[in-house]
Write a structure and sequence with these properties.
The chain is α/β, with parallel strands linked by helices and 696 residues long. The protein contains 30 helices and 18 strands. The protein has an 8-stranded mixed β-sheet with strand order 11-10-9-12-13-14-15-16, with helices on both faces. Strands 1-2-3-4-6-8 form a 6-stranded mixed β-sheet, with helices on both faces. A hairpin with a 2-residue loop joins strand 1 (7-10) and strand 2 (13-18). Helix 10 runs antiparallel to helix 11 (244-259) and helix 14 runs antiparallel to helix 15 (345-353). The longest helix is centred in the last third of the chain and has 21 residues, at 595-615. The protein is globular and about 85 Å long. The two termini are 30 Å apart. The structure holds (2S,3S)-3-hydroxy-2-methylbutanoyl-COA (T1G). (2S,3S)-3-hydroxy-2-methylbutanoyl-COA (T1G) binds next to strand 5 and helix 3.
């Protein structure tokens, strides 16, 4: 909090300003200062009204999430807000920007609320595996009703000023100087002699007990399985049926249950892991315009991200037909985002205007960044980078979107390897938030920093990784996939594999993902992979399907069949037979494999490969691996990512399980990584190892 103290007087109105950069989180010192100030101004006879406001870019973004892993420190927020609400003088909240979680609850404990047009008000606690624990579940429905409270708290997405006013949460909009407007209104209220309007004293809206059960049943099964969503519904149901104080106490109990859950610890871990420090601006070059080479699915997706992210982009393709298709895809995707309200009209128009097309590579001459997304073949990419090295101006960053190939081999062809980096986008590139920024042996700090800065600028998460086959994400995917492929030969059906991993929480099963991405892509990449294991079983099922032209959704057949108008995914007995024949040919006796074994083998393969990647320095931290897998591969966020998940299991147990798998299946693939084995012996964790390295 700023030294001058949080309270200033504007005549007979006291203004308390939250000033705890960067987001005015309600840390212990802030709570203590607020409580002391309320006590003081409420007792000060010269003060007739109070205004609460936030300094900087928002009102208050909630409780200080970092404090949740420490012992609780008084005063606790519920008590502070009860004291605030009890004030004998009108208290007006002046809201702008991020007004989230405990920040929104603070606003609800005030007697009146006004806001500026940039308001983003919400209850994102569920995204942290929590529920509003400071009275939001009791106060919000008294203003906005049950349906709105249920929707806002289970979805965790903020709303703007218009819906906030329409729902009765915010009383009025203030344009111009927000705090001055709030002070004037507060003085008006004091002059009117209006008693404080305490939300807790407002009547409880009528409800049907069944409506909460119905709401819970209507939640997706994946949400119902988590601790927080059902407890949010229960806390709101308690607010409908219990007296206010009892409902507040019940909500607090449910909050503490969530707080202690491994799911919330996992989501809180990810919250901070995804907030990597920005690259050193001293090394970031300006990027006013970019070019994307290859107008296919990935190229046009990358062009959309750049254009909607504020960067002018030229989409380049040698074939007119392909270029037209790419530009059409760009335009229709931006149009759809505008239709769905994801982009407002001005932003959509600006994004469309930023995109141009070109049939010639010479178009790269004036740009600051090139992202190459042509066919995944080393010879083709080297030929392109050879030309890029000549045509691009000095200082232009030359990025390749390869998902597996050797960055150094590509960079060498450009004649200016210092400018070459990997920017590995994930499909669909305009949707997926993750970009692996790959450093080649000679990539300069400027090129790496610029690629990371552009990635953040277009609203994505940049994770720097080293240059190795498949970098971090795909390299781990090969270990994860290896096990599912082996288990299919051993008798598990493709759909059983997918079901087990989806029940574990994966967004999609690996076979369904393979069919979506196209089995020909992986088949091609494995052909180019020099160091792949010399094992006839390795990806034998996928390769066989590809050999037979079963590329997945694009060919209507893959691991599954995609028949009928809806192209429904259905198991295909032909595949089961095909696998049985391959198993027979390889001398593998098939058996029943239970879901537990499927999950154990696939997930521990991830963890073990992740540990090897850390040892090799291909990933800088376990956090980065968790962010890559949760944002690029659909690993369940409520498990925190493979490395955090392993820590929750306990590394010695993980190593014991891996050794048991080695005894059963041989240690060709099941040798515990050195780092993992060492940490297990030391009784340590990946998180502890990371902290130790950070401390130097
Ligand atoms: N606590 C601690 N640190 C926080 C924080 C928080 N609530 N919110 C942000 N930060 C840090 C973040 O780690 C980063 O730090 C910096 O601020 C900028 O954040 C009692 C239980 C507000 C929309 O879930 O959604 O209240 O990396 O990079 O993109 O019922 O931050 O610079 O060191 O994200 O502009 C509920 C979480 C808490 C909101 C701004 N509140 N924050 O986004 O910046 S639980 C939330 C956000 C609660 C009550 C319950 C976003 C933002 P660093 P940033 P941004």
């Amino acid at each position: 909090m700023n030294a001058g103290g949080p309270v200033r007087r504007d005549g007979d109105v006291a203004v308390f300003t939250f000033d705890n950069p960067p987001v005015n989180a309600l840390s212990q010192p802030v709570r203590a200062a607020l409580l002391d100030s309320i006590e003081a101004v409420d007792a000060d006879r010269a003060v007739r009204a109070i205004v609460l406001a936030g300094a900087g870019r928002g009102f208050v973004a909630g409780a200080d999430v970092r404090e949740f892993d420490r012992p609780p420190a008084e005063p606790m927020l519920p008590a502070v807000l009860s004291r605030l609400e009890a004030c004998g003088k009108p208290v007006v909240a002046a809201l702008h920007g991020a007004t989230l979680g405990g920040g929104a609850e603070t606003a609800l404990a005030c007697h009146y609320r006004c806001a500026s047009g940039d308001l983003q008000l919400g209850f994102p606690e569920v995204n942290l595996g929590l529920l509003p624990g400071a009275g939001g579940t009791v106060r919000l429905p008294r203003l906005a009703g049950w349906q709105a409270a249920l929707d806002l708290m289970t979805a965790g997405r903020p709303i703007g000023i218009d819906p906030a006013i329409a729902l009765g949460i915010v009383d009025r909009r203030v344009d111009g100087d927000l705090v001055a407007g709030a002070v004037a209104w507060a003085r008006e209220l004091a002059d009117s002699g209006m008693p404080p309007r305490r939300v807790l004293d407002l009547p409880v809206p009528p409800s049907r007990p069944a409506q909460f059960e119905e709401y819970l049943r209507a939640l997706p099964a994946s949400a119902r399985r988590l601790p927080a969503p059902p407890r949010i519904v229960e806390a709101l149901a308690s607010a409908a049926m219990l007296p206010a104080e009892a409902a507040l106490a019940r909500a607090r109990t449910l909050f503490l249950e969530c707080l202690a859950s491994v799911e919330s610890r996992s989501l809180r871990h990810l919250f901070f892991a995804e907030r990597r420090p920005a690259p050193d601006p001293a090394f970031v070059r300006d990027v006013g315009r970019a070019a994307v080479l290859g107008a296919g699915t990935m190229g046009s997706g990358i062009a959309i991200s750049l254009a909607t992210g504020g960067i002018g982009v030229t989409l380049v393709d040698a074939k007119q037909e392909a270029l037209d298709a790419g530009l059409t895809r760009v335009k229709s995707t931006i149009d759809a985002a505008e239709r769905k309200g994801r982009l407002d009209a001005a932003a959509a128009t600006a994004a469309r205007a930023r995109v141009q097309g070109s049939l010639t590579l010479a178009a790269v001459a004036g740009v600051d960044l090139v992202v190459e997304a042509v066919f995944e073949n080393l010879a083709v990419k080297r030929e392109v980078f050879g030309r890029l090295g000549e045509l691009a101006k000095p200082g232009t960053v030359l990025a390749t979107n390869t998902s597996t190939l050797d960055i150094d081999a590509i960079a060498a062809a450009s004649g200016r390897p210092a400018d070459v980096v990997g920017m590995h986008f994930f499909s669909p590139a305009n949707v997926m938030r993750l970009v692996e920024v790959v450093r080649g042996r000679q990539s300069s700090r400027e090129a790496l920093a610029t690629a990371q800065a552009v990635t953040r600028r277009i609203g994505k998460i940049a994770i720097p990784v080293g240059n190795a086959f498949g970098f971090v994400g795909n390299r781990m995917l090969y270990a994860y996939g290896r096990e599912k492929e082996l288990m299919m030969l051993e008798g598990a059906s493709p759909e059983a594999i997918d079901r087990a991993l989806q029940d574990f929480g994966m967004a999609m099963g690996p076979n369904a993902v393979g069919d979506l991405a196209g089995l020909d892509i992986g088949f091609q990449a494995r052909k180019e992979w020099q160091e792949k294991p010399d094992d006839p079983r390795f990806y034998r099922v996928s390769d066989r399907l590809a050999e037979l032209g079963r590329f997945g959704q694009k060919s209507g057949r893959g691991f599954y069949r995609y028949d009928g108008p809806g192209k429904e995914r259905v198991p295909d007995p032909e595949v089961t037979e095909l696998i049985r024949v391959e198993a027979d040919r390889l001398g593998i006796k098939q058996r029943d494999i239970d879901p537990g074994e499927i999950v154990t083998r696939c997930i521990l393969a991830l963890v073990n490969e992740g540990a090897r990647i850390l040892e090799a320095g291909i990933a800088e931290s376990p956090d980065d691996i968790d962010v890559i897998w949760c944002n690029g591969y659909g690993f369940p966020r409520h498990r925190g990512g493979p490395m955090f998940y392993a820590d929750t299991l306990g590394l010695s147990g993980v190593v014991d399980s891996i050794r048991a798998l080695a005894r059963e299946h041989g240690n060709r693939y099941w040798e515990p990584a050195g780092l993992l084995a060492r940490l297990a012996v030391e009784g340590a964790t990946f998180a502890g190892w990371q902290a130790g390295r950070a401390a130097g």
